[in-house]
Amino acid sequence: MHVVEAEIREPLILGEKSYNDITEDVCAPIEGKANALWYFVFGLAGLLALWGVGNILYTVGVGIGVWGLNKTVGWAWDITNFVWWVGIGHAGTLISAVLLLFRQRWRMAINRSAEAMTIFAVMMAALFPGIHMGRIWQAYWVLPLPNQFGSLWPNFNSPLLWDVFAISTYFSVSLVFWYIGLVPDFATVRDRMVKPLPKKIYSILAFGWSGNAKHWNRFEEVSLVLAGLATPLVFSVHSIVSMDFATSVIPGWHTTIFPPYFVAGAVFSGFAMVLTLMLVMRKVLRLEDYLTLKHIEYMNIIVMLTGSMVGVAYLTELFVAWYAGVEYEGYAFMNRATGPYWWAYWSMMTCNVISPQLMWFKKIRRNLVITFILSVIVNIGMWFERFVIIVTSLHRDFLTSSWTQFHPTYVDMGVFLGTIGLFFVLFLLYSRTFPVLALNEVKTILRATGEYGVKGSSSHGHDDHHAEPVVEETAAPVVEEAPVEAPAAEEAAEESTETEEESNDETSEEGDNEENKEQE
Amino acid sequence: MSKIYAMYDDDATLLHGAEKLVAKGVHIKDVFSPFPIHGIDPVIGVRKTRLAICAFIYGLTGMSLALIGMYYFMIVDWPMNIGGKPNHYFYQNIPAFIPITFELTVLCTAHGMAITYFLRNKTLPGMKAKNPDPRTTDDKFVMEINTAEAGMDEAALISELKATGAIEINKA
């Protein structure tokens, strides 16, 4: 049951919470009113989103000639943005699936929001190939549907088609995984709602969840199997995205290192975006007790690790370009570092290779301001990475007469800024209407890794306002089990929680705990 | 048939209580909780779910669909010479089919399993929740017992429940 963690581990839930406190803290934003700052940010994001929608409509109406693309550089900001957004999405699945399989308890406070981020990011990503087609109303041609051209099928040997299947599978499976976890939490919100309309809405969303033993039995099985499926899925998706480039014969793209390099880069940028969002969210929604410094430190360590992997990949690419002795390959990389796009290359190198190395210092890992700044820098760097890969490889092709530069138009920029706005609109709406922590999961770790459980002061006095005679009858004298020191104190821990039946109150007062410690 | 709902405020208390009651021959019909109580299933006789078996079957379906589909599109119906890549026989073309085969396998498994899960749970949009008390989705844990299956009379059962640490007992 409640495996109590060793005392040297930092608690993952601070402030001696009860189960009810968790519910209250997480439901507060849903039940309360948004403040002026929320409306301000929402308004700003909304304006940006509208500007983006306008630019998208303009693009669709007039054609992609309004972008800065030319005959040589046929992919630029559009595909850069696509890969950037898909990459950001990867952290959500990594947190919810991979860390579930590894039984990392710290994932539970962040998985819900990280998955929300995944879903919104993949929506933004999917937009770009769609509008890049030029005739978005014929987007269904990517599907193998019987047609009037003698049944001409899409090319199943093409990574671009693999990508269609990968992204749509990834999006829909992430959505289902997210929703299955949300159902019990929607039930919690439903059972608390007083006003009839919100209650009605949340009871529809909660699907009639009752939380009986069989429900939970199936819930755990489904979560585990979906995590097992999502784990290879998340790696496959960005591998396939990388094959869009790697299977072509363009110098700088035609590289076998691409799949692992892209996956590491995706996790890197995704965790950076999770940090950007979480650092704001924990403050605004007052969730500092659940998204603790320890959580931020863990995420920073992952940023550092994946950032180093990306750094190694960059250096490997350079080495191979030299060692392979192919002059075109060698030129492509020389051109990246010293050609007209040197500034993009060196921004990428600085942001992605050097900046995460600062995380070796514990002081920096646990500094909120520096973490926030670095998380934004990493995402800027990762945007440049994709820009460097795409544009510098294309702009000087095999025919020197067609060498050219890429200049983005305001429509290019508008569409990109618009997706950022749209992403924040969706995330801000989510943060006020959805339970932003996985309630049912966080509650399971309260006893084991909450401050409450770690300190072993689980029996906090018998000061109940409970007039229940039942309790009074059975109230045994408080036995202090003090089970914490022994790591294998499972049995003892159970008993210590058992003594808790005497303390039915949800408001654990500091004073009572002090008393208990004195008794000890 | 009348039912008794015993409410606890801790999962461990309920679990120990359930073990004691079952040892005394009480049949516990169901348990409602805000999160999964690990270890309760064998005590109250909930069998392991077979959803994973379904998932495997859906996965096989997805894989077959993908392979048969691509065989028909690319080899039988309209073979295309794309950059001289082999397309005469299925086995020659299989490496290029692996990514989509994998994606469709995952797609069918995940969605098939999710649909089965919701149907088996009887949880669909607009369904009515059956938890006896709204607090069971917050911080309370409720045991449901049919008095007819308790193996003892109601008064004895209630005192047994109280002895296990129930904080509230309701009849329905």
Rg of chain B, Å, rounded: 26 Å
Structural class of chain B: alpha+beta
Number of helices of chain A: 19
Poorly predicted sequence stretches spanning 5 or more consecutive residues of chain B? none
Largest protein-protein interface: A-B, 83 and 79 residues
Describe the structure.
With 520 residues, chain A is mainly α. Chain A has 19 helices and no strands. Chain A is globular. In chain A, 51% of the residues are buried. With 172 residues, chain B is an alpha+beta fold. Chain B has five helices and four strands; from the N terminus they run βαβαααβαβ. In chain B, strands 2-3-1-4 form a four-stranded antiparallel β-sheet. In chain B, α3 runs antiparallel to α4. Chain B is rod-shaped. In chain B, 45% of the residues are buried. The mean pLDDT of chain B is 86.
Features:
heterodimer, A: mainly alpha, about 65% helix, disordered C terminus, B: about 170 residues, alpha+beta, 4 strands, about 50% helix, rod-shaped
Q: Gist?
A:
With 520 residues, chain A is mainly alpha-helical. Chain A has helices at 19-31, 36-62, 77-101, 111-132, 159-192, 196-205, 213-246, 258-284, 293-323, 327-338, 342-354, 362-365, 368-395, 410-433, 439-449, 451-454, 469-474, 490-498, 510-519.
List the helices and strands and how they pair.
The complex is a heterodimer of chains A (520) and B (172).
Chain A: H1 19-31, H2 36-62, H3 77-101, H4 111-132, H5 159-192, H6 196-205, H7 213-246, H8 258-284, H9 293-323, H10 327-338, H11 342-354, H12 362-365, H13 368-395, H14 410-433, H15 439-449, H16 451-454, H17 469-474, H18 490-498, H19 510-519
Helix pairs in contact in A: 1-15, 2-14, 3-4, 3-7, 3-8, 3-13, 4-5, 4-14, 5-6, 5-7, 7-8, 8-9, 8-13, 9-10, 9-11, 10-11, 11-13
Chain B: E1 3-8, H1 11-23, E2 30-32, H2 40-44, H3 51-77, H4 90-121, E3 141-146, H5 154-163, E4 168-171
Antiparallel strand pairs in B: 1-3, 1-4, 2-3
Helix pairs in contact in B: 3-4
